[in-house]
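Provenance

Sequences were taken from public entries as deposited. Structures were produced by running a predictor on each sequence independently, with no templates supplied. The record for phosphoenolpyruvate--glycerone phosphotransferase from Aeromonas veronii is shown for reference.
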Amino acid sequence: MIGIVVVSHSAQLAAGLKALADQLGSPARLLLAAGVDDADHPIGTDAIAVMSAIEEADDGSGVLVLMDLGSALLSAETALELLPPELSARVRLCPAPLVEGTLAAVVAAGSGLTLDEVTAEALGALGPKQAMLPASAAQAATETAPVADDGWLRCEVVVDNPHGLHVRPAARLVAALKPFAAELKLQKGDKEANPRSLTRLAMLNVRQGDQLTLLARGEDATAALTCFQQLADERFGD
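Predicted structure for phosphoenolpyruvate--glycerone phosphotransferase:
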């Protein structure tokens, strides 16, 4: 499973981000390399701490590193130079936004995605916020939902969650649908998203009272739809 490392100048900032990520229930490893060991001047980054965090996060699958500010990148680059070549080769430094990117990466890694796929999820994590802003040019970031083809099964639910499908219930939906051997599409009105992607789900901007339709096709299609209905009945665990 891909490991995640957060490099931040502030230990408090990183700890708050980890507390937020822990709410998602992902099994992915999230390690912090934040602040420096100086009581009088605790703000900063330490390449040795970054190197140690990468080593701890790696299980052989790869590590994604997210950073807050410029010198955090310098510390991460120095850490890569200090690591054995076979380990540094499977480490990716990611320019995604720290908070959104980390949350998306944690969910994607916990779903068993590859390093390239986890990186793509993190890089796309700013899209939902951009799409929600009225003046954003990213309004069309979600695909227009086509008419369902023959062979697709469907399940329609109305979201009862008071705060809609925010990050925690969305993460639970992603994790719940992961095991099924089926092609899945989630529709809200004329928009469509991959329900196994936290970033894509967020771009649907699902609110209380919205109707969602899950389309499924494949060996586990019926089981996936049953799972989706049960999750909706339980307010997606929220």
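The chain has two domains: 3-131, 153-237.
The longest helix spans residues 70-82.
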